[in-house]
Write a structure and sequence with these properties.
The complex is a heterodimer. By secondary structure, chain A is mainly alpha-helical. In chain A, about 85% of the residues lie in helices and about 0% in strands. Classes of the chains: A mainly alpha, B mainly alpha.
Chain lengths: ~160, ~130
């Protein structure tokens, strides 16, 4: 009788610290979950906000959405550089498809311009992907954005 | 002859796109400023030219497992809705006005990028 009682007691003592520990663990994981949910909600709101911006620019200009999508995916979506670039294409494709339909409906497509340009872009895309990492990044940056600045000024005036 | 220049413009834009720098942004001014194509036509051409190249790139990247599908619809759906609206707006707008707005956009992006690069260099202390 006494033996059985002490065994029960021991069991109770053993259980007690375990449950406290479990309780603490449970609390901390729950706290973590709440924080995770908060940051996830923030990410989704930011995604929607920048989505509006990306879509707006891409529809208006027929370009430029990808330049914004890559930093958004890397900073808000927390993707590394390669994944951000790859995922940006997934974002851009449906946008360009939708825009294409709208542009085609209003007859702004000139096939004499489209076909040679599209061939150039396709071949150039393959060449560019092969050149990736072989060119000096800083020089490329300087040349690209200088060209962009000059082109922009020329279009303004 | 014009066809050759069009191919070259596409080639240059495609190379920059392949390098992941936003090739379409440069294809349009190459067509408009360099070859005298109308602004709206250049935009439409650039959009359509992206479709086959983008699909091929997306296919390759997906196969390599580099495309992240998590929560991406939260980005794509609002973007799609607004994109259709602004596309309509663009097709109804005068090309000359659109050209000027686009020029302003390019100047802003270029200056912003130079600015961001300067900050980055200051932060880490060197060009890498």
């Amino acid at each position: 009788m006494a033996k059985a009682y002490s065994a029960k007691w021991e069991q109770a003592v053993q259980i007690k610290p375990k449950t406290i520990k479990e309780f603490e663990e449970d609390k901390s994981t729950r706290k973590f979950e709440v924080e995770g949910k908060k940051s996830k909600a923030k990410q989704l709101v930011l995604f929607a906000f920048f989505g509006i911006l990306i879509g707006g620019i891409n529809g208006l200009f027929g370009a430029g959405g990808g330049m914004l999508a890559v930093p958004v995916l890397s900073f808000v979506g927390k993707l590394d550089d390669r994944r951000a670039h790859a995922t940006a294409i997934l974002v851009m494709l449906p946008l360009c498809l939708a825009s294409t339909v709208v542009y085609m409906l209003s007859n702004t497509v000139d096939f004499a311009v489209l076909i040679p340009t599209a061939i150039g872009v396709f071949v150039g895309g393959i060449v560019g992907a092969k050149l990736l990492g072989l060119l000096n990044e800083n020089l490329l940056f300087f040349v690209f954005y200088s060209l962009m600045l000059i082109a922009g000024l020329k279009m303004l005036y | 002859m014009k066809t050759v220049f069009l191919i070259l413009a596409g080639l240059l834009g495609g190379i920059i796109a392949g390098l992941g720098m936003g090739g379409g942004t440069l294809t349009i001014p190459l067509l408009v400023v360099g070859l005298g194509v109308g602004q709206l036509t250049a935009q439409a051409v650039n959009l359509i030219a992206f479709l086959p190249t983008g699909s091929a790139a997306l296919f390759i990247h997906t196969k390599k497992g580099l495309v992240d599908f998590k929560h991406i619809l939260f980005l794509i759906l609002p973007a799609m809705a607004v994109c259709i609206g602004t596309s309509f707006f663009a097709t109804q707008t005068d090309g000359e006005l659109l050209k000027k707005i686009y020029g302003g956009f390019l100047v802003m992006v270029a200056i912003g990028s130079f600015f961001a690069k300067t900050i980055q260099i200051r932060k880490i202390g060197y060009l890498h």
